[in-house]
Amino acid sequence: MEIKDQLVVVTGASRGLGAEIAKSFGREKANVVVNYYQSEEKAWEIAREIGSHALAVQADVMDKQQVEDMFIKAERHFKQPVTTVINNALVGFKFDAVNRKNAETITWKEYQSQLEGSVKAALITIQAGLKGMREMEFGRVINIGTNLLQNPVVPYHDYTTSKSALLGFTRNMASELGQHGITVNMVSGGLLEKTDASASTPDQVFEAIRETTPLKKVTSPKEAADAVLFFASPWSRAVTGQNLVVDGGLVMD
User: What is the pLDDT of residues 187-234, one digit of tens each?
Assistant: First the structure.
């Protein structure tokens, strides 16, 4: 299925990487749901920028009923089933290398919060769209990960562990759902310049990335978003269960 024929739900799409992903799909003329939790005004700004084939919808991605209601609203509005889900929402986390929790201070509750934000949320969105995808014999799920799995230069214990779990989740879902024409993949960026989530990161960290990355630059949200399009496009029809690292070559896996 061409991207222009898809109905795409992007979670956490009111700002940062999520906003760029939504706009990338909008540029390809897909119907786009700009999901948000609190940032209503920003979400509608993104939707208006995309145009008439975008709709901003509020939903807590960790609330099963709210997500199901969002899918129903999207399908009624665009008069087609959801084909594509981008699990991007980042729940209650900022990349702050100075004030991060360390091995002595991190709590299990903080691990649980990130695990639920990554894995539980992805489970809920997949289950919300699964019936329609099976009936179409087509589906695309792209989960957003991190290159910290391969290179934890800053040990964000709870965040990185949750993304490790999300990769295992991705591959299990890919294994089971492939028979229905549904692919499940992951796109893992590095530290992106600059988003709300990375605003607390010192400039020295960005400079260090520039110096050690083959492309001698920090990946932008727009560049990472464009890589997501690959997994939704017909060009990736034989690819599932994969983790594509998009960080300018900093991590080579």
Answer: 998 777 766 666 666 677 777 777 777 878 887 889 999 999 999 999
pLDDT at position 197: 63
Torsions phi, psi of 87, nearest 5? -90, 90
CB 219 within 8 A of CB 15: no
What are the tokens at 120? 């539980």
Q: 223 CB contacts (<8 Å, ≥6 apart)?
A: 246
Tracing tokens 């986390």 back to the chain, one arrives at 93
DSSP assignment of 161-217: HHHHHHHHHHHHHHHHHGGGTEEEEEEEE-S-TT-TTTTTS-HHHHHHHHHHSTTSS
pTM: 0.91
Per-residue tokens: 143? 């989960």
Q: Phi/psi at 112 (nearest 5 deg)?
A: -60, -40
pLDDT digits (tens, 9 = 90+) for 115-132: 999 999 999 999 999 999
- Of 89, 77, 85, nearest in space to 38 by CA: 89
Cα–Cα dist 214/191, whole Å: 15
